[in-house]
Amino acid sequence: MRYLIAGNWKMNGTRPMLAELDRIAEAAAAHKGVDVAIAPPFTLLADATPRAGQVLIGGQDCHQAAKGPHTGCISADMLVEMGARFVICGHSERRAEFGEGDSLVQAKAQAAQAAGLIAIVCIGENEAERDEGRAVPVVAGKLDGSVPPASRAGNLVISYEPAWAIGTGRTPTMAEICGMHAMIRAKLIQLLGAEGVAVRILYGGSVTSDNAAQILACEEVNGALIGGASLTADQFAPIVLAAAAIAQ
Ligand code: PEP
Hints:
Elements: E1 4-8, H1 18-30, E2 35-39, H2 45-48, E3 56-59, H3 76-81, E4 86-89, H4 92-98, H5 102-114, E5 118-123, H6 127-131, H7 135-146, E6 156-160, H8 174-192, H9 195-198, E7 200-204, H10 212-216, E8 223-226, H11 233-247
Parallel strand pairs: 1-2, 1-8, 2-3, 3-4, 4-5, 5-6, 6-7, 7-8
Helix pairs in contact: 1-11, 5-7, 7-8
């Protein structure tokens, strides 16, 4: 399966930051065996897409409705019009800050897929759930509740992101990451049948150029979703390189 190395710029960046995208696009062009994606803030989408080369540009969130009285919200079709190819749904920051639950995340993913976008659906446990030994059932439940039942391998990506590992510099052990990804694969096959075999499963949570090669070597890790280390090409390009080296 081709690796997908995706960056989430979150609420960072005005136009000058697109210089980083230019350099990320150069790295992507140099490593054509890896899919590379960046989700800049919505305000940069229109400027980002024409200079992205083969980097897929996407949104960080979308509304579940196609249109209507939802002040400040962005529909999946609006993302498509800006050149987006994917959208992140149910990132742990949206779940925690805006109270997004599984059924809303599922509705957003469904809206995204209906508009022709790839939905990158994020699932993961928080620190308390992990400390209580409930990480596996929590992640399994979020997968059940958040994945649209008619998803196909071409319009769904899962990102396993333990919330306690995001932006903290802490990561689960390799055994924990590999075990969780194996569980997610088995459940995807249960939920989606043959399509579940080919859905890419990313790991997210403090991925850097130092740990990327080790994490990506895990059998059911098909890429990474990266926050902090996606903000500069200096940090992000070596992760693309690490994926390309394993893919060869
Ligand atoms: C994220 O926000 O999805 C993420 C994984 O962030 P970081 O890489 O900074 O931990």
